[in-house]
Amino acid sequence: MAPRARLRKSRLSLALCFGLGILPDARAAVPLTKARIGAGPSIIQTPQKNIQTWGSFGTFRLGSYQERLQIISGLDLTAWRLQDQPKDGLNYDIHGNDVLFFIGYAAGSWTLWGGLGAGQIRVYDREAPDEDKPHRSINQVTEAGGSYDLYRAQFAKIDASFTWRHMTPEKGWRSAYAMNMIDCIQFEVGFKLLGW
Q1: Contact of 78 with 55, CB cutoff 8 Å
Q2: Pick the CATH number of 29-194 from 3.40.50.300, 3.40.1160.10, 2.40.50.140, 2.40.160.20
Q3: pLDDT at 5 over 90
């Protein structure tokens, strides 16, 4: 048999073995959807000082739970808003939407996860002539969190979660608004919608 044909056959065998090896795991994966809402303190870092404000958040989670390995993974779709603080020089609300890929571990009533993604950040400047037209930019997001089940049944779950989010807007936005990054702490309540 030619070396190229042997290589092709060994690759096919390897792919088949790998596929058969993960097939039972794939059958054990349970789809999950979940909604979380919450609020918490946020710190906007600027070159001069840190501005403390309050943020509100809503997240829809679409993913799967691998029962044998106790691993969760999927996508988090988040909408958030940071309140203005005129006394600190922040005369506008900051809004945003993010998409994050998350992966985590679930054992018993506890779930821990981390996520990485990006989204859009919008500023509504109340002092500008076109205050209803937001200034838009791209936002990089890192997230880590954990939750504890307050109530759990076969088709229902309510949990409390704690999430840290670190957001870094793109360079043009940082220059325009003199802001380097945003750190948010979220205290949330989650409701399971399907599966798991």
Answers
A1: no
A2: 2.40.160.20
A3: no
